[in-house]
Amino acid sequence: MQRLLWGIRQSLRAPSRNPRSAVVLGRLLGAAFLITFVTGLFSHFIQNPLPGMRFLTRPVWLYQVSQGIHITAGILCFPLILAKLYAVYPRLFQTPPLTGFRNLLERASIALFVAASLVEITTGMLNTYQWYQLFPFPFRQTHYALAFVVVGSLAIHIAVKLPIIARYWRRRDALDASGEVAPLPVDLEDGDDTAGRRPLPAAGITGRIFAWVDGAPQPERPHLARRGFFAAVGAAGAAVVALTAGQSFRALDALNVFAPRKAGVGPATLPVNRTAAQAGVSRVASAPDWVLTVRAGQRSRTYTRAELAALPQHDVDLPIACVEGWSQMARWRGPRLRDLMDAVQAPADAFATATSLQKGSIYAVSRMEPEFARDPLTLVALELNGETLDLDHGYPARLIAPARPGVLQTKWLSRIEAT
Ligand SMILES: Nc1nc2c(c(=O)[nH]1)N[C@H]1C(S)=C(S)[C@@H](COP(=O)(O)O)O[C@H]1N2
Ligand SMILES: [Mo]
């Protein structure tokens, strides 16, 4: 039994577990969380704008890059958070388990932070594979709400740990003359409440167990050195990023092993997110009597596909940039939305609400701010990469606009209303 405890202590005392490692990892993790939070808010508000919100329409790849960063930084959180937990988890077994109010706050906020962030990144990751069915709650609302729990508990955690963070922030303060990480000063130990005092002895059986653990022999030689630890974390981080980021960043496409979609695979070489069959529109979307209705107040017009094709046609290069992280540039051709809006004399500051033939899906309607509706690059697309739009890409006609998320690029259009 003493041997077993000795083994536990040995592994808990790895030199990579020290306040400096915790601070360095914390900084990286903090940066990754901040980046995912900010890009996440952008994605949230462009899909659910508050009244009066306006958005940039250039660069056309703004959403593509922002969401690519969101997913990539989110994936990077996995190795970072595991490393951070590895570096600090012996703290779970501190003796005694609570030393005061500050310590209670610290432990509660870290418990909440760890739990919320693991759920956040795991469901986010599953969502990129479209495995929404795996959890019994709506993804979008949960992901959004949890983000605030994560950021809030992180803020408390940082506030409580600030003295330690400051003490170990700079390398030259963190290491002593021999290059070793300086031991945590007694007054910075978890739970400042006990500073300068002996911790209260824990009572009863738990107290005896803790005393026994404390009395176990100390390890003589470290296990895993600090350098090796950071090299391993760096390699794991680089690997998960390199093996998935290709879905968002073309330069890494060849390495895109794990990400769910491959560039260039699909009709007209563009991946499909939801097929016509999955959306239940195959029959209505291929009906010969299809028309697009465009309305502004009392004025309305209908267009057959041939009539749309007879309007002035424009070619634009715009990406499909899915919230799930994959994206791809494509060439689209069709009439401008603003020409259709003008034909029914829609006011210049009108929003455009596009409705799909698809029924009962949140993707079936997309509301567009005037800056997108009036943009010369916003088309009712009839062709993709030089071919008639495939049924799975939204035939007979779909919306395509710059700097917007894929979910708002509505396929199988039925109506466009100026609102
Ligand atoms: N009507 C409708 N439009 C839709 C969708 C949908 O499910 N239904 N999916 C959206 C999503 S999530 C994306 S990423 C893009 C993908 O376009 P693509 O399938 O042509 O690549 O279409 C969008 N348009
Ligand atoms: Mo999407």
Quickly list its features.
419 residues, alpha+beta, five-stranded mixed β-sheet, four-stranded antiparallel β-sheet, 13 helices, 11 strands, 44% helix, 12% strand, elongated, binds ligand MTE, binds molybdenum atom
How would you describe this protein?
The protein has 419 residues and is of the alpha+beta class. Helix content is 44%, strand content 12%. The strands form 3 sheets. The protein has a 5-stranded mixed beta sheet. It has a 4-stranded antiparallel beta sheet with strand order 3-4-8-9. The longest helix has 30 residues, at 139-168. The chain is elongated, with a radius of gyration of 28 Å. Residues 191-201 have low confidence and may be disordered. It binds the ligand Nc1nc2c(c(=O)[nH]1)N[C@H]1C(S)=C(S)[C@@H](COP(=O)(O)O)O[C@H]1N2 and molybdenum atom (MO). Molybdenum atom binds at residues 273, 322-324, 406-407.
Low-confidence stretches: 191-201
Separation of termini? 74 Å
- Molecular shape: elongated
Please bin the fraction of helical residues.
40-55%
Q: What is the alpha-carbon Rg in Å?
A: 28 Å
Largest sheet: 5 strands, mixed
Which secondary-structure class do the elements indicate? alpha+beta
Order of strands, main sheet, comes to 2-1-11-5-6
- Mean pLDDT over the full residue set: 87
> Count of DSSP E strands?
11
Count of individual helical segments: 13
User: Which ions and ligands are bound to the chains?
Assistant: ligand MTE, molybdenum atom
H/E series: HHHHHHHHHHEEHEEHEEHEEEEE
The share of residues in extended strands comes to 5-15%
